[in-house]
Amino acid sequence: MGSKLKKIRRPGRRKRRNHCWPRLIPLFLALLALLYLFLEHRHEGARKEARQFLEHLKKGNLEEAASLTGSSETEADTMGLGWMLEEGLLEISKTGSSRLAGWDQRRVEAIFYRKGEEKQASLIMENTEDGWEVASFSGYSFLWGGLITRDAYPDLEVYYRGEHLNFDISGRQAFDPPFKAGEAIVLAELDGKVVYKDVTEPVSLSRIIKRTGSKIEGEQEGSFDLHPQMSIYRREGEEGGGKNSPCQGQYSDLLVGRNGSQLFLWEDQVVAALVEGEYLPDNIRVALNDSTMENLTHGKAVFKTTAPLKMEEKKSGRKYNFTRGKTFSLRGTAKGLEVDPEGHAPLEFEERVFFNSKEGMEFSNLDRQGWENGPVYPGTLEVEPRDGELMVVNDLPLEKYLRTVVPSEMPARFDNEALKAQAIAARSYAYRAMLDSSYGVYGAHLDDSVSSQVYHNYRAEEEITRAIEATEGKVPFYQGEPVDTRFFSTSWGHTASFEEVWSDIDGGFPGSTVPYLQAASQVPGETLDFSSEEQVRKFLERSPEEAYDYHSPFFRWSVEMTREELEASLEKHLPRRHEHQPSYVLTRQGDAWVSREIPEDPIGELKDLRVAQRGKGGNMMTLDLEGSRGSYRLVKEYHIRHTLRPVQYLEGEPPVELQLHREGSREDYPVLPSAFACIDTKKDAEGRLDKVTISGGGNGHGVGMSQYGAKGMAREGFTHEEILEHYYPGIELKYIY
Asked: What is the C-alpha to C-alpha distance for residues 385 and 381, in angstroms, rounded to an integer?
C-alpha cells in the first residue's frame, strides 16, 4: 500500500521533435520585407510632399508652403523659414535621408547652409485625410515675438505660445542692443544654434479704439498692421506670479476700450502684444446708424453745440477750441474728411477726429424718434473717414448710456423694481458686448439699433435714471460669466427655451442650450404641458388671470385675414426671408425640404398652413405652407412672424386689424406679435381656403425676461433681485466696478 508507483515506459516509443519551424523563417522574413516595401511605398508620398514643401520655400511661395502644414505652430515656423530664405539668411542645400517615424509619420532630413556652415533639420510628415502634411519641425523653430522673461547672459529665457524656452547666446557679440526682460524678440534656432535674432520696437497704447483682423488702432497712436503670426500675452501682476510671469493670451484679450496695452513692432508689423491688469468697463462705444437705421456710415454730418467745444485729431496732435453756439458741417473726402466750422475756414483731416463738449453735441441732420431737432449726445463724438463717407461713434460712460437705453425698452410708468431689473438686464447686455467686441471693426462695442439695444431714441427720464443709479455696476453672472439677458415685451403665460428660438453659431437649429434660458411657466404654482395642439389651444382659450403678464394688452390677441391678404404677405416676404437666411426657408421637392431660390408668386393659391413643430414653451418652431404653385417650410419663429405679417398689402383694402384682449386693436401691426399661436382655416362652399384666423398670446421672441411679467411681479411685491432670479435661474449678481 505504501509503495510508490513507477511510470512504465513503453519500449520503441521516442519523443517526436518539431522540424517545421525552421521552414517558417524564410516566410517570416519575406513577410517583413513585404511589410517594409509596403511602408516604403506608402510613405513615398511623404517624401514627395516634403520636397514640394521645400521647393515652395525656395521660390518664395510662402502661402503654398504654409498650406502643406498641419497646425498654426508649424505654419508659424514655415513663415519664419520662408522669410529667412527670402532675406538670404539661410540657403536650402538638399533633402537628406528619409525614415519611418511611426505608422502614419515619416522623418525627412533637410540640409541648410548658414554662413558656409551646414545645418540640419527634420520635417516630420504626417498622413492625414487631406494627404501628407508637415506636422512639425525637429531641430528648427522660429519665434514671432517671444516675450523675454529672463536675460541673465549667456542664458535667455523666452515665453512663447504657452512654453518657457531657453537659448544659449554665449559668444554672440551681435546681440546689440542687449535684450531685456519684458521685451519681445524675434528669434530662429536651427540645429541647436541661434541663427537669427532681433529686438522689437515697443509701443504703449493709450487705449484700443478699433480692432479688425489685420489692424489695431490706438486712440492717440493711430493704426498698426497685425502680423498673421502675432503672439498675445497677458500678465496679471503680483497675483499672477510677479512682473515677469506672463501667460498665454488670445485675440479676444485685445478688447476695444482697453487701456494700457503694449505692442511690439518688427518689420512695421505687430508681432506681439501684452495686456496687463483687469479690463475696466467704464466707457462704452456706440456706432450711430444714419436716419434710416440701416447704415452705419453717413454721407455727411452736422453738429451743433451750445457750449464751448474741443476738436482734436489726436494722432497728429492738432487741436482746436471753439466758442459756444457753433455749427460744424462734416463730409468725407478722397483723402479723409473735411470739417467746416461756422465762421472758420474748412479744415482737412486724414485721421479720426474727436469732438467733445460738456453739454453734449446735437447731431442736427440725424432723425430720432424722441427728439424734435437732432438728438444731443453726451460724451465724445468720434468721426472716422471711411471710403468717402463717415463713421460716427459715441464714446460715453456706461451708466450714462443706460439712461437713454432703458426708456427705449421699458416705460417709465412701470414699477420701480421692474425698472431696476430692466436696468441690470440692459447693463449686462452692454457689458457682454464690450467683452465680445464683435463691433470692433467699426471702432465700437455695439450700435444704436434693435440689432444691439435701441439707444438715444428717447430722452432720459427721472424715474429710470433713479433705477439705474440704484443698481450702478450690478450685472448678473452664471458660473463666472456675464449672463445673456435676453428680454421681450410679453409672455403668453410661459417662456421659450433659447435653443428652440435661435440657431447656434454654426447655423444648426435647434441651437445650443443655455441653462438659465429655458422654457418656464409664468402662472404661479402651475407646470404646463404643450406637447399637443389641443393643449396649446386650451391654454390660449383659458387666458389665466393669475399669470404675471395678464395685464399686458398683448397677453392674448387674434387676427383674421382673407386668403388673398395672406397670399399678398407671403408673396412679399417669402423671398426676402430666404434671401436673409436661406437655410431656414425651404421648398418642398419630392419627399425632401431643400433650400432653393424663391420664385415670383411662390404660393399661387394658398391651400393650407400647418404647425410642424413646437417648442417646450408652446412656440411655433416650424410652419408648413401649401400652395397651388409650391409648398414651403419656415424654420424658426423669427421667419414665421416676419412672413405671416398682419399687414394689408392689397391696394384699396382697409387695414388689417389685430385684436387685443385689452386696449382695443392695432392696425397693420408690422409683425406677428409672437409664435405662441394657433392657426384656424375657414373654407368656402367650394372647399377653397377663404379665411385664416391666427389666435395667440404674448409679444416678442419669448426667451428670458418678460417686461410685462417683471411689472406684474413687482406689483406683487417681488424685488428686482427676485425678478431676475425668476427669469434667469441660478444667477449671481455682482458689481463690475
From this structure: 13
> Domain ranges in the chain?
44-138, 143-279, 283-478, 486-703
Question: What percent of the chain is predicted at pLDDT more than 90?
Answer: 72
pLDDT of res. 675: 98
Cell of residue 191, nine digits: 540645429
| CATH architecture under which domain 44-138 falls | Roll (3.10)
Look up residue 80 and give its three cell numbers: 519664419
Whole-prediction pTM: 0.86
State the residue for C-alpha cell 368656402.
684
Of the candidates 464, 457, 461, 286, the residue with the CA atom closest to the CA atom of residue 374: 457
In what helix (H) or strand (E) does residue 395 lie, and over which residues does it extend? strand 389-397
Secondary structure of 326-364 in HEC code, one letter for each residue: CEEEEEECCCCEEEEECCCCCEEECCCEEEEECCCEEEC
146, 160, 348, 513, 712 from 154: Cα distances, Å:
17, 19, 53, 54, 72
For residues 690 and 667, is the Cβ–Cβ distance under 8 A?
A: no
Write out 200-231 in H/E/C secondary structure.
CEEEECCEEEEECCCEEEECCCEEEEEEEEEE
The amino acid present at 197, given as its one-letter code, is K
Digit-coded pLDDT (tens) for 287-304: 999 999 999 999 999 999
Query: Whole-angstrom Cα distance, residue 498 to residue 513?
Result: 7
Contacts 24+ apart (CB under 8 A), 306-312: 306/359, 307/357, 307/358, 307/359, 308/357, 308/358, 309/355, 309/356, 309/357, 309/361, 310/354, 310/355, 310/356, 310/357, 311/339, 311/341, 311/353, 311/354, 311/355, 312/353, 312/354, 312/356
Query: Helix 462-470 to helix 416-436 angle, to the nearest 10 degrees?
Result: 70
What is the C-alpha R_g of the chain? Answer: 35
Q: Which three cell numbers stand for residue 349?
A: 483731416
Which long-range contacts does 54-62 make (Cβ < 8 Å, 24+ apart)?
Answer: 54/92, 54/95, 54/110, 54/123, 57/81, 57/82, 57/85, 57/92, 58/85, 58/92, 60/85, 60/86
Peptide bond into 510 cis (omega under 30): yes
Of the ranges 238-247, 602-611, 703-712, which one carries the lowest mean pLDDT score? 238-247
